[in-house]
Amino acid sequence: MDTTQLLKGVLDLAVLAAVDREDGYGYDVVRRLRSAGLADVGDASVYGTLRRLYAAGALTSYVVPSEEGPHRKYYGITPQGRTSLQHQRKQWGEFSQTMSDLLEGRAA
Amino acid sequence: MTTLAPPPAVTEYANTVRHHLSGLDAETLDELTGGLEADLAEALAERAPDGDAPDLAAVTAVFGSPADYAEELRVAAGVELPDSPGSGRPPLRTLLARQVAALADDWRRWRAEHRWADETARFVVSLRPAWWLLRGWILFHLVTGLRNPFFGSGLDLLLLLALVVASVLWGQGRIGQRRWWRRLGMLATAVALVAVVPVLGSVYNRVVLHDADGYSDGYQHGYSDGQWAGGEANGLSGSPANLFVYDAAGKPVEQAQILDQDGNPVVLNNPTTGGSWADWDGYEWNEEPVPSSVLDSGPLNVYPWAYVGSGQLTWSGDGVVGTGTTEPDEPRWPAASLFPIDGGDPEPDDATDPNEATTGDEATDTPSDDPADEDASAATPTEEPTAE
Q1: Chain centre to alpha carbon of residue B211
Q2: Is A26 in contact with B35 (Cβ distance < 8 A)?
Q3: pLDDT tens for residues B307-363?
Q4: A95/B53 Cα distance (integer angstroms)
């Protein structure tokens, strides 16, 4: 199974977690996710997810001026985003535990 | 973070991506692609930090086609493209259609929730066949109201039947289902709906007020107002061509018989000869129309008179022989009704003094004392009651 399929379901969670750890701009988040092991994540998907989370109020954004190039738009997490992250973290924990049990024959 | 100006290929790629998203409004587009060049350039720089500026092919190789990139971006962002590419809003027709559909949904839901609304709606729907009949009848009146009253009652009846039958058949869906016929039918229905009240009102006027020509009531009142304002007294020394009698309540009196003080019938004058029509012997070549009661030897003092045009008359060496098959023209009442006389009583038996100067509006108010004046229902004790 292609990991992109798996990723589709959890990209929101991954992006939220990354931004929660540290504010970042588009490619910054991509880089961090990739280096964390999600090699297949697409740039466009991350950028789009960032925008969607921003529109949903889970992220805030601000522009950081730069002397050497274009100003970058940074994303940060909001309290609402943090709450959502907590919730999804818990969900993920339960889900992945269930899946592991199932796969290892522990479930009934 | 050091960033140089992005390579031209990157700019080109980014612009192509923007082009694929051009259906979006400016704000959304900027949110999605605001830092695109910088991000792309950075990503490329990491892959090949010492390499030359990549060309478009290289950029595409890394990121996929601009179209795919735009699509992935859009989908991940949960943004929908509008219906017609290149425009920011759906066309007006779509918007209207959506609104109508939304209203229809609301109505259906409301109907489902309220029992009485549902029952009422069912009842109204069951009346549809009756509406088809009414629609045909109304269209008939609209059509005949406009045309010249020339054909006579036979053709009218056919027309009425045709329209009613057409209306019913179309309502049942048995005829006229193709596009332009459907549109015509819908237009006719809309017109008929709007015309329900006016047509009913006009028919009421005609039936109740004996307005045989079908002149509109408004015209009649306007015309008679004009008369009253500047109305001249036509004594019998003048030559009125017709007399129209109204009772005290202002209602027209058909077939009024008028006598003078001696009990003699009052007969109007023939404008050609200057003498009374009673003396007409049929020999004078009349350019003017002739009263029908003169031709068929009916009583000459029953008003209003119906005239026959001189063109309709048949002459022989001995004078007028006949009227051919033409019906005489219906007299045109100057007013469908008048205002009632002050304190006026509709009872025709009450003796109203014709010499009394009244302040009420009468069509022919004369200042003279001539008792033979044509006032509102002159009632002398020997006369039969007029009007009903």
Answers
A1: 20
A2: yes
A3: 887 777 776 666 666 666 667 778 888 877 787 776 544 444 444 444 444 444 444
A4: 45
Test the A interface: residue of B42, B62, B74, B75 with most A CBs within 10 Å: B42
pLDDT of residue B153: 65
Burial of A13 (0-12, 13-18, 19+ CB in 10 A): middle
Tens digits of per-residue pLDDT, B100-137? 888 887 887 777 778 888 888 888 888 888 988 998 88
More confident residue, B61 or B283: B61
Q: Could A26 and B39 be called an inter-chain contact, meaning their C-beta atoms sit closer than 8 Å?
A: yes
User: Is there a contact between B363 and B338 (Cβ–Cβ < 8 Å)?
Assistant: yes
Question: DSSP for B71-122?
Answer: HHHHHHHT-PPPSSTT-SS--HHHHHHHHHHHHHHHHHHHHHH-HHHHHHHH
Which residues face B265 on adjacent strands? B259
Do A66 and B1 count as a contact with CB atoms less than 8 A apart? yes
- Is residue B155 classed as helix, strand or coil in its secondary structure? helix
Given this model, what pLDDT does residue A2 score? 65
Chain A: closest CA distance from residue B5 (Å): 7
- Phi first, then psi, for residue B181 (nearest 5°) are -65, -40
* B3, B39, B40 member nearest A68 (Cβ): B3
- B284-321: b or e for each residue (b if 16 or more CB lie within 10 Å)? eebeebbbbbbbeeeebbebbbebbeeebbeeeeeebe
Beta carbons of A27 and B39 less than 8 Å apart: yes
Does A43 contact B5 at a Cβ distance shorter than 8 Å?
A: no
Query: CA-to-CA distance for B186 and B180, rounded, in angstroms?
Result: 10
Residue B292's pLDDT is 82
Q: What is the pLDDT of residue B365?
A: 42
CA distance B323 to B207: 29
- Rg of chain A over CA atoms, in angstroms? 16
Name the minimum distance, in Å, from the CA of A27 to any CA of chain B: 5
Distances B139 to A78, B127, B159 between C-alpha atoms, Å: 68, 18, 10
Tell which A residues from 16 to 75 touch B, by Cβ distance under 8 Å.
Answer: 25-27, 30-31, 42-49, 51-52, 54-55, 66, 68-70, 72-73
CA-nearest residue to B5 within chain A is A69
Give the global pTM.
0.40
Shortest Cα–Cα distance, B98 to chain A (Å) = 25
What ipTM describes this predicted complex?
0.83
Rounded CA separation B372/B368 (Å): 10
Nearest to A47 among B2, B39, B78 (CB): B39
Which of B264, B266, B263, B222 has its CA nearest to residue B240?
B266
* Interface residue A84 vs chain B (CB under 8 A): no
Cβ–Cβ < 8 Å for B37, A25: no
Q: Do B4 and A26 touch (CB under 8 A)?
A: no
